[in-house]
Amino acid sequence: MPALVNYSGDDEFFIRKNSIELGRLCSISSQADVYWPPHKRVRISAPFLFRETDFEQNKQPSINDLPGECIFEIFKRLPSGRERSLCACVSKRWLRLLSSIRKGEYGSSKVVKENIDSVSYAIETISSNENGGYLTRCLEGKKATDVRLAAVAVGTSGRGGLGKLSIRGSNSSCGVTNFGLSSIARGCPSLKSLSLWNVPHVGDVGLYEIAKECHLLEKLDLCQCSAVSSKGLIAIAENCLNLTALSIESCPKIGNESLQAVGKLCPKLQSISIKDCPLVGDHGVSSLFSLASSVLSKVKLEGLKISDFSLSVIGYYGKSVTNLMFSGLRNVSEKGFWVMGNAQGLQKLVSLMITSCRGLTDVSLEAMGK
């Protein structure tokens, strides 16, 4: 009879390859020749099963089981920026909670407030001798993310916050959004200079937060910010009255009404640069000069759909202009340059640069020279 089981003399149970499962082997008819060693039971290896009650008893409580509101209140009472930075390294959840706290909300008790003020004052005094007295950060490419901005906001809040921030982003889906910019606004209310380049996911909501918290903002540079509209820039003009320099380039949603608000509400504006903004026309440029002519000294207009009317307004109201640059103005003619020169308002002009403007002729140059 063919042997289905090979026995080697020990107590182990051997099965031929064509009989794999034990149940199948035992179900073979009685005619099959099977060896079953006496006084031995089949050894079965099975995982030990925990009862649910035993597992719950061994489970240790964790601070992460607390609601976000409770952890938020705990973080507000941390004594210094060092402790906040260490907590931000634990998890992204803790980092997000810390970045949502405004700088003025830290320290509900008198003792905690005194510790924060003493530590911040000491560090600010040390750092005041570098970089013009404030901290600067520049994030470029893949490094420009919301997580990094939140970490910068939390890490620098104990040292007086950022004074200058430059973001050179990209079109990737993980780039900077309104959340990252809002973190900077809440953690760095002392921000004075902000530069946003190629950040398509940042819109008016991010600028709203900057305008709401950063009242000391002096310089704003927007380049390739396709989601930012006139509403965001108007919010900046209404809340950042110390604005001295504004640069707008390739922002298709920013139009005339925002420039009118800047000219009306920003009395300290000294420098303006506008390039390749299709919604900016004569109404915006003329309003800007007629309302902010007292201190406006540096002007750069490039690739705009303005006409001779804007040039005549500049020639009449540009009494403080020292540097003037025109480039790619295809709708201006000889008459516009002639009127600008004969208006005799550009008495302080020391630098004039004109590029790719078809209306420039010898007659217009002679008028401006006189």
Which key phrases capture this entry?
370 residues, alpha/beta, 9-stranded parallel β-sheet, 15 helices, 9 strands, elongated, disordered N terminus
Topology:
Elements: H1 22-26, H2 52-58, H3 68-75, H4 81-88, H5 92-99, H6 110-127, E1 135-140, H7 146-157, E2 162-168, H8 178-187, E3 193-197, H9 204-213, E4 219-223, H10 230-239, E5 245-249, H11 256-265, E6 271-275, H12 282-291, E7 298-302, H13 308-317, E8 323-327, H14 334-342, E9 351-355, H15 362-369
Parallel strand pairs: 1-2, 2-3, 3-4, 4-5, 5-6, 6-7, 7-8, 8-9
Helix pairs in contact: 4-7, 5-7, 7-8, 8-9, 9-10, 10-11, 11-12, 12-13, 13-14, 14-15
Domain F-box/LRR-repeat protein 15-like leucin rich repeat: 164-363
GO biological process, one term: SCF-dependent proteasomal ubiquitin-dependent protein catabolic process
Protein name: EIN3-binding F-box protein 2
Q: How would you explain this protein's 3D organization?
A:
There is one protein chain. This protein has 370 residues and is α/β, with parallel strands linked by helices. The chain is 39% helix and 13% strand. The chain is built from 15 helices and 9 strands. The chain has helices at residues 22-26, 52-58, 68-75, 81-88, 92-99, 110-127, 146-157, 178-187, 204-213, 230-239, 256-265, 282-291, 308-317, 334-342, 362-369; strands at 135-140, 162-168, 193-197, 219-223, 245-249, 271-275, 298-302, 323-327, 351-355. Strands 1-2-3-4-5-6-7-8-9 form a 9-stranded parallel beta sheet, with helices on one face. The longest helix has 18 residues, at 110-127. It is elongated. Mean pLDDT is 77; it is low at 1-8, 10-32 and 108-130.
